[in-house]
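Final report, results section. Input specification for complex C-07:
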Amino acid sequence: MLKWLDERLGAGHWARKGLKKVFPDHWAFLLGEVALFCFVVLVATGVYLTLFFRPDATPVIYDGPYRALRGQEMSAAYESVLRLSFEVRAGLLMRQIHHWAALIFVASIVVHAMRVFFTGAFRKPREINWLVGVSLLIFAIGMGFTGYSLPDDLLSGTGLRIAYSVMLSIPFIGPYITFLVFGGEFPTEGIISRLFVMHVMLLPALVIGLITVHLGILWRQKHAQFRGPGRTEGNVVGKAFWPSQVFKSTGLMLLVAAVLAALGGLVQINGVWAYGPFDPTAVSGPAQPDWYVGWLEGGLRLFPAWEWTLFGVTIPSAFVPGVVIPGLVFTILALWPFIEQRITKDYEVHNLLDRPRDVPWRTAVGTAGFLYMGLLTIAGGNDVLALTFNIPVEGITWFLRVALLVVPVVGGMIAYRVCKELQVGGDHPLRRRRGTVLRRTTSGGFEEVH
Amino acid sequence: MLSLVLWAAGASVAPAQEPDPAEGRELYIDSCASCHGAEGEGAEHGPSLVGVGAASVDFYLRTGRMPLANESQQAVKKEPAFDDAQIESLVAYVSSLGEGPPIPEVDTATAELSAGQELFRDNCSACHGAAGAGGAVGSNAFAPSLLETDPVQIAEATIVGPGQMPKFAFEEEALNDLVGYVTYLQDVPEPGGEDIGRVGPVAEGFVAWVAGMGALIAISMFVGRKRERSPAEPDQA
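Structure output:
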């Protein structure tokens, strides 16, 4: 049978080579796989959901088992989500796994990207794959946001309204873009079906395409690896794809699926029935988006309400925090390999990774960026913080504004110092030997070994 | 639901005798007059209580908001400082100072939940959150969670508009529907498993990172651990 295939496709050579591909054995290389397996779970559960979800804004009257909404007018989309949650067998389980998987998909991309950043894995020749990765992150966030908005509940409707006003705030072209995306003035009839097309067709197609490219390039370029005995710029030391890595990855996939299923089965997420259907007349107060959009919301909340007039056009205050800052963040992120090349004047090929401490300034910059985004994300939930800890929002907002200017700088400096310390110490920070090692000298005394 | 039952039970066990305004006045002088004035006329530290009505006094006392400890801070719900009889006599005294709204009657069993849901969504969710878990209002006030409040106090708050909250004038039946819905929200079906505070995406993001991502990083470390005594020599390419 294999022979038959080989004679026809001539794939034998190619496959044998593929099976022998070497994977470096360090756990940090598995983080990208975690993201990949989250995506697999997302597709599997998502397909189930599309069987029952109706991307349709037509008003219907609800008469299902959820008492508190019976007899109300709502969109067919929201109604189908209620049905999915209360009547479809395993519907709620699938919804919940899907939603948890989405949150963790983006989280694992972020962690994977941090691994790549702090080890300098983006350096020549891997700049293209870094760009692909950043695009994947953006599209993953896009998939999350469109998916979050599909149920057409009160909370996500508020999120859409914010997205609408941010798009509208773009000078000159804002109105055209909003018209293009929303098809009219918010709230529009067509928005659910438009979001649906983006969520189940355009974005997944892009993501699948880019994952293929991402892995293809990885395969072609081979893995980068940490320094170690026998490891050079010209080889990869580790285990072959077959059999070792195949079993590892399969195990990992099953474990990822198990974690997501456990969360989906045990912890309730986005109980949209309690939020009620979206209602454009209900002026909903501050509502939080899913975490990966939290930093955008945080920017909107922290940024002072300044408006300018430019060439006779008023620029709404949402423009800078909603469009300019995210634009800058992703531009810098995407161009980082090239920026770093400019700074270090290092145009060599690098297949050996840095440890974070090896390049303290990069680690410092990364830490600062991470803290900046973290603080913005926290700001996106400032009202929940206020409520939970019983402190006025105003106070939290001012605190975060100051922190946003101070904490990244201080954090970066600390990271820099820690790196320098570690360079001197030399040991892994988590595996440092405690105490001192003594050696017995020939004369019978003891001396410290450094 | 439980709190409703308890509340109903508590009401029926309460002493049947008429509350005594004179006793209420004594309590008033002891605990309230310093801020609200000797005759409830209002003073430097507290507003006038003339004409606030039984609904207001009952609400502020049963949610433990009064006597206020620190007037520079928003009054918050705490354990009531008085027992039922004392509250009743205080209510009798203060409401004798002037005409005001009486304590509303609610019967959550007859409430039209769906109508209540609509009222809640249109009037309350902006401040108290789509699921009633609370939220921030304006610059330095917060609308508390409604998930622990007794039905009568929900109705009273709606009429009275405590602190930064506006007053609402609903028909009796609408008010009952609204209170019924909020009470239902307190015990809304949770078919999805453990509910995490019902504050929505913030708590969910936290769980996703700490429990989800945390577990997956630990799993990666486990799966990708180096086996010291691995028989196979590493492969090279």
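The two ends of chain B are 67 Å apart (CA to CA). Chain B is about 45% helix and 5% strand. This concludes the modelling results for the funded period.
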